[in-house]
Amino acid sequence: MSLAKEFSRKLIIVAGVATMVIIVVAGIAAKDLWAGRLTPGSETSVLSAIQDQDESSVNDPPGTRRVRLDRYKNDDPARVALVMEGDTDVTPGDRPFKPWQGKPFVAGDDWVKNLKVVLKNLSNKKIVAASISVNFPESDDPAVGLRFVGYDVTVGRTPARYVRVGGSSQGELRPASGSAPLNIGTSQELTVALADYYDKIKDSVETVRPISGTKTCWILIGRVYFDDGTTWSPGEFQKPDPVSPGRYIKITADEFWGRTPRG
After folding, report:
1. Is residue 69 part of a domain?
2. 58 domain residue, yes or no
3. How far lies 109's CA from each of 63, 138, 172, in Å?
4. Which of 44, 58, 162, 254 would be 259's cystine partner, CB 3.0–4.6 Å?
5. In which domain, by residue range, is 15 found?
6. Would you say residue 35 lies in a domain?
7. Cα 64 vs. chain centroid, distance in angstroms?
């Protein structure tokens, strides 16, 4: 599924979910509103990435690429544990390269095709499906602001889900889709080779810019589905609504993990 792109005061929509509003004044990006995919805990990471562009990717030598990840939280039940470009480990996170800044590496024009993303299950449940957003800035100029184009990679079999249609208040129940469910147990890993989805990623990106000219790739976990029916996306845990098939209701991290609430 391609990433929808509609902007109002640089409103970023990722996979149909309003992510954030970035206001650019004199080339400086500032937060105005946060919602959806990137949670309040992620705002520092994304804003840091914008503010760091002049010092990082903008001044990188030719052929330098970066993979950027979201900030991790202790309660996250899944994580991008490793990113490989061919045989090279390009995972950011070790000093001095924070996840949202990316670790610089040199690669050719087909670097995106060579990426492999390793998703690790940190929960006490089995993962049956997951989506990973592969996003690229529409421009390398930080003065333009941060606007994405990309593609959502979905693996496994997602359950039936009630979704809104065309951004309206109307909705429909979409049936389960995808291949057979995954069976990723606790501490197990799933490797997703972007080569398997490259044509669709390329088609989406090249509605805006040549994919060969991209320098930075944001890899974000979209949503993870578990064998007990619960789901997680960064900053939000959910379980099926018992009275409305296909709908989900929010739950706390304690409820997801089966913990006794503190205090």
Report:
1. yes
2. yes
3. 8, 17, 41
4. 254
5. 11-159+176-233
6. yes
7. 22
Rounded to 5 degrees, φ, ψ at 111 are -60, -35
**What pLDDT digit, counting tens, does each position of 82-105 carry?**
999 999 999 987 667 777 788 889
The number of residues making up the chain comes to: 263
Asked whether the beta carbons of 147 and 10 are under 8 A apart, the reply is yes
Q: How many CB atoms lie within 10 A of CB 125?
A: 21
State how many domains the chain has: 1
CB 130 within 8 A of CB 221: yes
Q: Which residues pair with 157 in a beta bridge?
A: 178
In the structure encoding, which two tokens stand for residue 187, read together?
Answer: 């501490």
3-state secondary structure 45-76: HHHHHHHHCCCCHHHCCCCEEEEEECCCCCCC
Q: What is the model's pTM?
A: 0.76
Residue 122 CA to residue 81 CA, distance in Å, equals: 10
Those residues whose C-beta lies under 8 Å from the C-beta of residue 20, and which sit 6 or more positions away, are 11, 12, 31, 32, 33, 34, 35, 38, 43, 46
Contacts of residue 228, defined as CB under 8 A and 6 or more positions apart, other chains included, come to: 125
E strand spans, 86-170: 88-89, 105-106, 115-121, 127-137, 148-158, 161-164
Please tell me what DSSP assigns to residue 168: S
Q: Between 14 and 153, where is the model more confident? A: 153
Helix (H) or strand (E) holding 189: strand 189-193
